[in-house]
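Sequence and structure are no longer studied apart. To make this concrete, we show below a single chain and its fold as tokens.
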Amino acid sequence: MSSGRSRGIFDGLPIPADKSYLKEGLSRIDESWAEARFDSLPHVVHILTSRDREGEVQFLKEQSDLIEDVVDEVVHAYHHGFNKAIQNYSQILRLFSESAESISTLKVDMAEARKLLGSRNKQLHQLWYRSLTLRHILSLLDQIEGVAKVPSRIEKLIAEKQLYAAVQLHVQSMLMLEREGLQVVGALQDVRSELTKLRGVLFYKILEELHSHLYNKGEYSSSTLNMLDGDEIPTTAIGVVSNSGQPFSRRTRSIKGEGNFGAGSSLLSSVDGGSSFEGHDDESGAADGLMKDSKSSLRDVPAWLSSATPDEFLETIKKSEASLAVKYLRTLVECLCMLGKVAAAGAILCQRLRSTIHDAITAEIKVYSEHATKARITQGTKPDFCSSKGLLDGFKMLKHKNKNGSSLNGTQQIVSPISPLMTPTGQAQRAASELLASVLSSIIHILENHLIVGELLETKSLAHGDSAAAEVNWNPDSESSQATGGYSVTFSLSVVQSECQQLICEILRATPEAATADAAVQTARLANKAPVKEKRDGSEGLSFAFRITEASVSVQNEAQGWKRGANVQQEGYGTASVLPDLGIYLAASVYRPVLEFTDKIRSFLPEKYSQIGNDALLAFSENFLKDHFLPAIFVDYRKCVQQAISTPAAFRPRVQATSVYSPFIEKGRPVLQGLLAVDFLAKEVLGWAQLMPKYASELVEFVRTILERTYDRCRTSYTEVVLERQSYKLLGRSDMENLMRLDPASALLENASDEQNFGHNVLNAETLEIEMQISDLLWSLRPIKQENLIHDDQKLILLASLSDSLEYLADSIERLGESFVSPTSLDDHNHHHHTRSSSAIPKSLLTLANEYRKLAIDCLKVLRLEMKLVTIFHLQEMTNREYLEDQDADEPDDFIISLTSLITCRDEEMVPFISELKRNYIFGGISSVAANALIKALAEIRSINLLGVQQICRNSIALEQALAAIPSMDSEAIQQRLDRVRTYYELLNLPFEALHAYMSEHEYLFSSKEYTTLLKVNVPGREIPRDAF
């Protein structure tokens, strides 16, 4: 009646696994039996109309029994839960009944109590008021008794560095002494006098703590905490009060709207030694308390507040997630506010700011010097002043002697306008960058502290003053600044940048006279507590002016940077003892630390300080780079380039005759001295660009300029060699240019990446056709005169060396284009104060590299044409003569001997200057030209006999041997071409009939014109029919 189902209403019943047959039986029961409106009529009709009625009835009984078994299983599985539920329900009903009875009783009792209390209300109120009066009198007596102990307890709290608790006790005691009734107590006059003295003691103690922690010298400074507790110290700058809706800065998260938390709180608390100060008489070490507090949870009270009376400020500190250093600074500022000494503290901080910053910088330089000295002692080596990295990797082995005897270190000292110390990757540059980065990093931490304290002081002065301005005026001469004694974030930032600027000037040998005077005047104005009447001229920040102690640098001298002049101040920061050298060329290494310093300042300063000149130090550095450093680079390097390419030795091949060509500079690649110097200078200039990404475009443009000037000089040298020479004129002809472009060897030459296939060209029909056309063109130029050829071998060697040097320089420029990319880590910020251009090599340099490569190819093409013309020049002596030899000669003709000697000599002379593959290109065209010339010459030979044929064959063999002796030459191709010549001339030994038969069988071996020449030439003893032509 039912078919199987994937899932039905009977699924999920608690049927045991050992009675799986029940599940199978249920799966066969139709779900229509379980419908809410069950209709039995269809089932009855089905049974009555069935042929086997008893069988159907029996099937229904079996399903009924199956369902009863399933019901038994379900009841067995759930009957315990049903019983438990019934019991729980009974308990709930009983509890509700008992509760109702209890509530009824409670209502009756409360009504009776209300009646009793109403009848005695006045008596209770009188007793309560009397108890309050007596309690207040007792508390006042206790406080009066404890006031006498306040001075000694304040001194004890100061000794324990519980400054906030001491200030709390002092303020509360002073307020208590001002109460009515206590002012006439004579015994308290001495207490008042002592408390007045202690107010001054407290002020100076708090001020000293604040001053030391401002410059990270206190026991709760971030540097001290990091040394004591490592990573367990929280590093968040300032936590925000949880119930404060005031804005906070991006990095320090300092409160900008904190008004009056903590001040005047708990004024009625006990000062007689109650619970607030009990249990803290034992003295413990500061370090132990510091370590314990640094490891405590955020909800614990810091060690310096352990004796303080709980108030709003204490709760704020407990809830704050700031670091201990920041919490301590906030505590000290709160103490100054409670004492009413904000203006006095600000004035003193202003007066000591410049000298303290100077001392901090000097101390950091000494620490850096000690670390550097220890590092050198540990390593047991001296610093390598001549090491180089990055773009100058090709010049790492500065002290290594090349195979040709030249020293790269010596070359660098002669070529570069600066010493190895001052190069972009020199030791002086790295030391200056690391030193300045270390100093500016410490200054950043000091500035963060000044930002915290400055904002808190300004906020407190506004909250407790009479000013009702809604916004803060950040002008240093404003009333807000006067309320803090002239101390402000603006003033701190200006002084810090002024000191950093003087440090940079010391490194660069520049004297910031105007900036120093301006900073001194500004310090005096802002540190003065009296109101300042003058108005500022509207300019913000610092205006830096400077002069250089020496106005020029000689390229010919020791080139050690800009030396110290006699008028340089002797008092400074001590950088001369740390840095190996000083001078204007360190401006590049100074730029990046200053840029990072400005970015960090901008990252944690709030937006309201964006107009106070927070990038004045960067502006000074950029102005110095733009107005002094870049012009100095352009002048010095332009002179060096001009000197390098204008000396007589600049384009003189410099290699020993017995040396072997190497593609590596370190192993003696014979790059021309002038081009090698230019390559070195270009890489050095681009090294400056890497240090100064903003000025990369100017420096790259300058590199392009010097490379263009060098290219012009190379073009001039090339022209001087080839001018008025037949090969140069021939190269300029359009027909020869087209043929050489189609020549497979020239095509491979232009695609320099496929140099390995130079000597292995397949001699197909197309190649042979192009060679034939070139040879015919050259043969048509006869007579070739010697004065039209480059007969000076030194000039040919210069062309070869110039080609290789140009190729080297082109490759160097392309490598620079691949490696010299813009540093994205510093260029991600889109600041409106300064922009940084990309440092990628422009397309103009790559185009210039292609020009260099094209000129190098032109040199090789001239050499290839020159060797072909020399071959024609020697072989043209075969024409207009008779080869009627009377005896068999043992040697080739003199012109062949001269040609082979010339080929061998020039090949040997070019070995050190050019690669084997390029030499293969130069000499590779001789065999095809010679083969064609030997065959063409037969038409102009008047007579030839058998011995003459042997002489010409001997000439071809000698030429083949000379060409095959050149390394990497395709000897098989040479043999194939010259075998064709010997086959051609040996046909002259055949009688007419045999020759005619050979011509018929090898119709396409030679052209019809060449076969006709074989018949026309006069061979003694051979008869040719008149109709043979």
Observations:
- The chain has a mean pLDDT of 76.
- The first helix runs from residue 20 to 27.
